Amino acid sequence: MGRHPKRLSLSLNTTSSDEKEIETFHTGAGTGVRVRFGGFTLDADTRQLLRGREELHVSTKAFDLLVLLLERRPAVVDKAALRQHLWPGTYVVDANLTNLVAEIRTVLADRSSPPAFVRTVHGVGYAFSAEANEIEADRAADPPGSPRFWVVWQQRATVLGQEETIVGRDPTCAVWVDAAGVSRRHARIRIPRDGASGPAMLEDLDSTNGTFLRGTRLVGPQPLENGDLIRIGRATLTFRAWKDAGAVTKRVRAPKK
Question: At the top level of CATH, which class does the domain 7-133 belong to?
Answer without folding.
Answer: mainly alpha
